[in-house]
Design goal:
about 170 residues, alpha+beta, 5 helices
C-alpha cells in the first residue's frame, strides 16, 4: 500500500515538474539529466520521498527542494553532474548510478553532522567538503581533459545555513 501511494505521489509530482524541456533539465541538445521515469524509480526504491512540488527528502533527511537560478529543479541541478560538460572550465562528474549519488549525499550529510567535514560559509549558505576513501567521480571539463580525467574522492555539499536544505552536491 505504501509503495502504491509513493508511486502515485511520484507520478503526480513528476508530471508537474517535467511538463517542459527547461523544467525537465534538458540541455540545449535535448539530453535530459534525469527523467521522470528515473525520479519515479528513486521514489519507488525509497531513495527519495516526495515532499511537495519540486521537493524530495532523502533517507538521511536532506531536503532537495526548489529551483536553481536557471529554472532547473535542485534534483536536476545535482544530476547535471552525472555527465561531463566538456565546454566548462572544470566540472566534477559522478561515476556512480543516480541512486548511488543520493546515497553518497546522505553519507556526506552523516559526516557533516558528525563534524567530519571542512566547511566554508558565504551568503547564508555553508559548503561542506567531505573526503571519501572511494572514488566518487572524476574531473571533467577542459581542465579534466587536459589532466587525463583524474579520479575524485571528495564531494561538496552546499546547504542553506542552519538547515538540511540542499543547494547543490557535486564531486571535487
Amino acid at each position: 500500500m505504501k509503495t502504491a501511494i509513493r508511486l502515485i505521489f511520484a507520478i503526480a509530482f513528476a508530471a508537474g515538474i517535467f511538463c517542459s524541456d527547461n523544467a525537465a533539465g534538458k540541455k540545449d541538445d535535448g539530453a535530459a539529466y534525469i527523467t521522470a521515469v528515473e525520479v519515479r524509480a528513486l521514489v519507488g526504491s525509497g531513495h527519495l520521498v516526495p515532499a511537495g512540488r519540486d521537493a524530495w527528502r532523502t533517507r538521511g533527511g536532506l531536503l532537495i527542494a526548489g529551483r536553481d537560478p536557471d529554472g532547473r529543479t535542485r534534483l536536476v541541478h545535482i544530476m547535471r553532474h552525472m555527465q561531463d560538460e566538456p565546454g566548462r572550465p572544470k566540472h566534477g562528474v559522478f561515476s556512480l548510478a543516480k541512486a548511488g549519488v543520493i546515497e553518497l549525499m546522505d553519507e556526506a550529510w552523516k559526516e557533516v553532522v558528525a563534524g567530519n567535514a571542512d566547511s566554508r560559509e558565504r551568503a547564508g549558505r555553508v559548503a561542506y567538503t567531505v573526503r571519501f576513501r572511494k572514488k566518487v567521480g572524476f574531473l571533467g571539463g577542459r581542465v579534466g581533459r587536459t589532466r587525463g580525467y583524474p579520479a575524485l574522492r571528495s564531494a561538496r555539499l552546499v546547504v542553506i545555513k542552519g538547515t538540511n536544505r540542499v543547494i547543490t552536491f557535486f564531486p571535487i
